UniProtKB/TrEMBL annotation:
InterPro entries: AAA_14 (IPR041682), DUF4143 (IPR025420), P-loop_NTPase (IPR027417). Residues 18-152 form the AAA domain. Pfam families: AAA_14, DUF4143. Residues 219-384 form the DUF4143 domain. Coiled coil: none annotated. This is AAA+ ATPase domain-containing protein. Transmembrane segments: none annotated. It comes from Chitinophaga eiseniae.
Length: 455
């Protein structure tokens, strides 16, 4: 069992003086229950309720008043009500009893001393109109697949992890970091996959686990959809999403189908609510605020790059490459960079962002935008000469700052570049494996720019 970075976010939540019940969001199989079980070690008492079990579900359905509910929960789990202020209650699979979600408000209003966390399979709740959330009386955290730093911890590479966090990274550590990052890119960040690999280091043994994960998502749709048509739309959307991941898509005819825009739009939005995919609409301005243009085609990201690799069959290609940007026409490394950017975020309001400029006959696109100190920092994921970064030059010509970042297969460096529009800017070149440390490197980058200007 390995530690997840979100544990520190849970500790911050638990220490808040005005703490509200917490709802953990995340797709199936991203380790929600495991994380909360680990977090429970910080409390004297732990009450775990799985509302798929009738005996755990019954007290919420037989609810008469909150005091009785509270006494019943402590009694059934043989815990002391006198220690309520040192107790964590975790209500798992809460969507199985919609009334339990509504009752979270009473924990906030009448028992704020008790730490309460709930979680559930979001895909099921999408098809249940009886579920409503106690707005204003709960807060949210999102769990994503395992990040590269978490992967290093899982495979017991603690020394390498410590060097990853040193800015700038020591040159002698780069080869091993890149080798381990390549493995992470290959297998992805689904906790079951990572734990299995950490135990056996056998890549071939992971195939059945990937298959079972994919089948479980398909089975969820069949179990909870209301109509045969809805089943078919969403099953098609799941299958095709892996093949279309990293690309800009159109709803009409998605995946070479005859489905209409409305049908595929509803199916893809359902998968997005379940956090199985992300529909990323482009930003068209180089400045804040972030206002993605919903009228333009979105870029599609799936839950996990490892599952993408397995589904489209590029695992062997990753093993044999020297530069990850050559795999799958560069889609795989761009996708994993996005996954790492998401892994840094725990708010349900945050996501990925990219930039486009589309005019008749021409177009420009920046892979990602990163918000840093009130600036939109462009991030490109490319190898090759700096002169080929035409979209980046165009963005920087209109940006009110002089900082840009490129992730590539080379070493750390800073380039001074002049655009065709005669604007000078600085480009921070970083090896792929440093994406998780982007904010720390931007601070370092600013200091380096200041030193360069002093000379």
């Amino acid at each position: 069992m390995f530690q997840r970075n979100i544990l520190s976010e849970l500790e911050k939540w638990a220490s808040k003086p005005n703490r509200k019940p917490l709802i953990i969001r995340g797709a199936r199989q991203v380790g929600k229950t495991t994380v909360i079980n680990q977090f429970s070690d910080a409390f004297e008492q732990y009450i775990y309720l799985n509302l798929e079990l009738p005996e755990d579900k019954r007290p919420f359905e037989q609810f008469e008043n909150f005091d009785t509910l509270l006494e019943t929960l402590f009694f059934l789990k043989n815990k002391l009500l006198a220690k309520r202020g040192k107790t964590l209650i975790f209500i798992d699979e809460i969507q199985e009893a919609p009334v339990a979600l509504q009752q979270l408000r009473y924990f906030f209003e009448q028992a704020p001393d008790i730490a309460v966390i709930s979680a559930g399979s979001m895909l099921e709740s999408l098809f249940n109109p009886g579920i409503s959330f106690p707005v204003g009386r709960v807060e949210y955290l999102v769990i994503h697949p395992v990040s590269f730093p978490e992967f290093l911890g899982a495979v017991n590479e603690t020394s390498v992890l410590s060097y990853l966090k040193k800015v700038p990274v020591a040159k002698f550590a780069e080869d091993k970091l890149m080798k381990l990052f390549r493995t992470y890119c290959l297998i992805g960040g689904m906790p079951e996959i990572v734990a299995q690999y950490a135990a056996s280091k056998d890549l071939s043994a992971l195939q059945t686990t990937y298959e079972s994960l994919l089948v479980s998502y398909l089975d969820d749709v069949e179990k909870y959809a209301h109509s045969n048509a809805q089943i078919e739309y969403i099953r098609h959307a799941i299958r095709v999403s892996f093949a279309e991941a990293g690309k800009r898509i159109k709803y009409q005819g998605f995946g070479n189908s005859n489905y209409k825009s409305r049908e595929m739009g509803e199916a893809l939005r359902a998968l997005e609510k379940a956090l199985l995919i992300h529909l990323v609409f482009p930003q068209t301005a180089p400045v804040l605020p972030l206002l993605p243009d919903q009228h333009k085609s979105p870029r599609l990201h799936v839950l996990d790059t490892g599952m993408l690799n397995y589904f489209v069959g590029i695992q062997q290609e990753i093993l044999g490459t020297q530069d990850l940007s050559t795999v799958y026409q560069g889609t795989m490394i761009e996708h994993v960079i996005g996954q790492e950017l998401l892994a840094r975020q725990y708010s349900a309001l945050h996501g990925l962002n990219f930039w486009v400029r589309e005019k008749s006959g021409t177009s420009a696109e920046i892979d990602y935008l990163f918000v840093y100190e009130g600036k939109l920092i462009p991030i490109e994921v490319k190898s090759g000469a700096e002169g080929r970064l035409k979209s980046l030059h165009l963005f920087m010509d209109h940006a009110p700052h002089n900082m840009a970042v490129r992730f590539f297969a080379g070493e750390i460096s800073i380039s001074t570049i002049v655009t065709p529009g005669n604007k000078e800017y600085y480009l921070l070149n970083l090896p792929y494996f440093l994406i998780s440390q982007i904010e720390e490197y931007l601070k370092w980058f600013e200091n380096q720019i200041a030193k360069m200007k002093e000379k």
